[in-house]
# Entry
Amino acid sequence: MPRKIIIDSDPGQDDAVAILLALASPEELDVLGIVAVAGNVGLARNAKNALRIVELAGRTDIPVFAGCPGPMMRKLVTAEHVHGDTGLDGSNLPDPVKTLEDRHGVDFLIETVMSAPENTVTLCALGPLTNIATALVKEPRIAARLEEIVLMGGAYFEVGNITPAAEFNIYVDPEAAATVFACGAPVTVMPLDVTHKMLTTPGRMKAFRDLGNRTGAAIAGMLSFSEHFDLQKYGWDGAPLHDPCVTAWLLAPDIFSGRQCNVEIETASELTRGMTVADYWLITDKPRNAMFIRDGDADAFYRLLTERLARLP
Ligand code: BDR
Ligand code: CA
# Structure
């Protein structure tokens, strides 16, 4: 039986690859729906991008919902400087024909988890955690009913990318992140510590281009756009590919390694707002509330991506 997942996302070029990887793997993953959240760009554009991605994959049967338009307590911070004005620059995807579902994304999330058998739905979070935290506040019983929350966010050894202390997804809505880490559901974290090892080297980009399908062409186009910023910033041989680590974890957990430890979020300080304080060295006896991934086999990760994405139109 494929594992049931809901993808919560602010697509985003790397989000798009994460979603496409899931859609390319129907034997393992049953995507119940995609919920858009404000993050990389505003909610309306992110939601439109989610529709574009399901159309690219030929999976218009997947319902797409709009969630929250901004963080729980703070002003929205966006990242057009990385993703472009549309949030998905470089992909050249047409405007979608498919439309959003009427229901609010948070209600979809709650109702789906409450009506499915216990511990059978996994949430994949690829953006700020606003929708998931709002669902947890509105219906706290979902925490005990979730199979897992797998999220891209935070960093410990690599510290930050939007400020010296914080990773973007956690920084945008630190109160939401704090709510998720404290909720009691099993949480797996894909922080910058692992995503900074998954680089889009020229050879790996060529493999996407060479897939020979429209998905490969769209991915090569969009990643060529979004990698610019990071290539200049870090001077590495490729840019980090963040969000696909979430869906790759569900398909091939052996690619990754990390440890169960305590993770808490800084919400009070302005200087370190959104810092993920991970007790990776088990210095305290605080509850080990998250599986914190530190490392991954980049070649195996890109092999998985190209092998799966070749299956799409
Ligand atoms: C995260 O921020 C976004 O810009 C990416 O899509 C990813 O989810 C990386 O910090
Ligand atoms: Ca994202």
